Every structure is written in C-alpha cells, then in structure tokens.
Amino acid sequence: MYKTFLTLLLLAGMGAAELWGVEFTGLKVSASVGYNLAQHYGNKEQAAGYGVETGFHHGFSSGMAVELPITESMAFRYEFNYVTRGSRERISVNEIGGEPLLKPAKVNVYYHLGYAEFPLLFKFTALKGEKFSLAANAGVAMSLKTNGRYELEGLVYFPDEDSFTNFHIRDESDLSEVNQFDFSLIYGGEIDFRMWSRPVTLGYRFTIGWDYLSLPTFEAGGAEPVELRNQSYCLYLSTPLWQKSKGR
Which residues fall within 8 angstroms of residue 243, CB to CB, at 6 or more apart? Predict the structure, then answer.
C-alpha cells in the first residue's frame, strides 16, 4: 500500500513536470542537519492499574535533498535522511497480576529508534523578496528502522511489617521485534536567506506516524506491549551543495 501510494505521488510529480514543460533549470542538491524532538502518541492507558506520562526524546536529523522547481512558486523535493525518534515514559503501576499494590511501583522507560527516512514533498513559496523567501511544504515519508534501544528501570515496593522492601527491576533490548517500516505524514515551513554570502534555509517540520509500533513495556507486571505511534518536531538548517543555473 505504501509503495503504491509513493509511486503514484512520484508519477504525479513527473507528470506535472512534463505538463509544465520543466527543463530541470534550477535543480538543486542540498545538505541539512537539525535538532529532532520526538515522542510517542496513542493509547497509553491500555490496562487497568497503569498510568503513563510521556516525555520527549532529544535527537537529531541529517540528510540530503534534491529539489526540482516546477513553477516560480512550486517545487518537488526528494530527500534521504537519517532521523532519531522515540520517547521517555514514566509508568505508575498500581497492581500486579490483578492484585493491588499498597505502594505503586514506579517505572522509567526509554525508547530510542533510528530511521533511514525517504520523504517526498511538495514545496510552495508563498512570499519571495530580494533578501529572503517564505515557503510551506507537505508530503509523505517511508522510514526504514536501522537501530533501536529500549531501557527500563524501576522500583517495586513490597510490604515488610511497617515499611517496604525495595525491589529494583531492569530490562533492555535492541527493539528488533518492532516494525521495520514506518509510514509518516509531513508538513512544515522554511525561510530562505543568505548568511556569510551563502544561501541558507531555516526550516521547521512536523512528522506524524501513521503506523502503530508494538513497544515493550512493564513485562514483569504482566503488561502487554503498548501500541504507540511516532511523532517529532524538527528544526533544521540546510544549504545548497550544487544547483543548475539557466543556460547550463
């Protein structure tokens, strides 16, 4: 389904380029690097007795892009990026095996996922001046998981006369069982300007995952894997490495 959708979108872009008589003037290849702030969203209350608070995963993105102008204000962009996503979860466990706990267990979970991401975007320049321009972009992306890490640490409190005995729990894995592919929707905006006599783009991007990821959680408490989706906010800088000018 995903490959079919991306193929149709690509063919639509090629058809539009042919319709508008594009000769690849202004074709641009650029590199980018950015700060990625990610978290997971979805149903975090999947079992009675569990409460979940989601925190952010701090990461980065970097990659290359090929931009093909169609008109003065419209362009297609094909990208290859490496991005990190994930989240931090604080889980409060009020019961284990159906038995209520006198003192809730506290569990901290860390998810880290690395992806090779292949976005296909439409770019629309809304405002163009002599020194800067403003543009919006939107599209889709297919991501291939390249690496992952899951870490769980927590404390379970067992009654001991008038106090509690602390039992430390720990678990970790490489998340090899989590979905290999992730399909996403993307939208954002960009400002083009010059810095030190070089063209630079400052951009913002929001990426929201379509697929549910089956992520491990508090297995010691009998909890099933939690079904969550990726989402991230990215602030990035890019600059052209090569551009085809008119007459070349």
Answer: 26, 27, 28, 29
Provide the whole-model pTM: 0.82
**Which amino acid appears at position 85 of this protein?**
R
Cα–chain center distance at 94: 31
Alpha carbon 50 to its chain centroid, in Å, reads 26
Please state the separation of Cα 243 from the chain's center in Å: 28
Among all chains, which residue has been given the structure tokens 């970097």? 62
Find out whether 152 and 193 touch, Cβ atoms under 8 Å: no
What are the tens digits of pLDDT across the range 46-64?
555 677 788 999 999 999 9
Helix boundaries (H) for the chain: 2-19
Question: Mean pLDDT, to the nearest integer, of 155-177?
Answer: 84
Q: Indicate the residue type of 196.
A: W
Angle (CA) 36-152-55 rounded to 5° is 35
